[in-house]
Write a structure and sequence with these properties.
It is built from four helices and two strands; from the N terminus they run H-H-H-E-E-H. It is mostly helical. Among the domains are: about 70 residues; about 70 residues.
Length: about 220
């Protein structure tokens, strides 16, 4: 459970001396990058050195960002975990009541539809009998007692409730599914392409090298 407490948390990285030092270094590195001209192989060496420095600054800045966020993230996690417990009774009350109302309404509708179906069958039978016997009908066409139709919406002074459409779906045959509804598994494709599979029907695969930087 969360205990009420007071904690001092740094909230403004713009006032952090170390972060400001990284910012000043970043501005200088950007200025160097804008002024840099690479025309020979020798020019690649100082550029590589700067990339190594840039990589270290980026990692240091990211570490500071995580330091600022960690206390908040931990607190958010604790609050969410606590509320999973605190909200359980009211969530259960909501689900139980909704389920019971839905079950009643659906059952009333089912019974009424079943009665209407029986009446339709009896009427069809009576018509066939009349055709066979020259108009004579012995089928009992007395209407079947039906349950009262549940209201579309129940309204009280405190609120209202009623069923609304909620369509769900399940793909039963992917091969028959129109192409417009099929999605590319980009994660799986990326894995196999990076692993060395470079010829896949219907897929254009190109190698676009990017600069990799390692620091020492």
């Amino acid at each position: 459970m969360i205990q009420e407490s007071t904690a001092l948390i740094k909230v403004d990285p713009r006032a952090d001396v170390e972060v400001l030092r990284f910012l000043a270094e970043s501005n200088q590195l950007r200025d160097f990058a804008e002024a840099r001209i690479i025309t020979t192989n020798d020019d690649l060496k100082p550029a590589t050195d700067d990339l190594a420095i840039i990589s270290k600054v980026k990692k240091a800045m990211e570490a500071k960002r995580k330091d600022y966020l960690q206390p908040f993230q931990e607190h958010v996690k604790e609050v969410n975990e606590a509320y999973k417990i605190l909200m359980t009774p009211v969530e259960q009350a909501d689900k139980i009541t909704r389920d019971k109302m839905t079950a009643f309404i659906n059952e009333q509708n089912r019974k009424r539809q079943a009665a209407e179906a029986i009446e339709a069958e009896k009427l069809a039978l009576a018509k066939r009998e009349a055709e066979l016997k020259g108009g004579e009908i012995t089928v009992d066409l007395t209407p079947i007692e039906k349950p009262i139709v549940a209201p579309q919406r129940t309204t009280t002074d405190m609120g209202s409730a009623g069923l609304k459409d909620h369509w769900v779906f399940e793909v039963t045959d992917f091969a028959l599914l129109p192409d417009d509804y099929k999605m590319v598994d980009a994660v799986k494709l990326g894995k196999v392409v990076r692993a060395g599979l470079h010829i896949i029907p219907g897929v254009l695969i190109e190698n676009k090298p990017s600069l990799a930087v390692t620091t020492r």
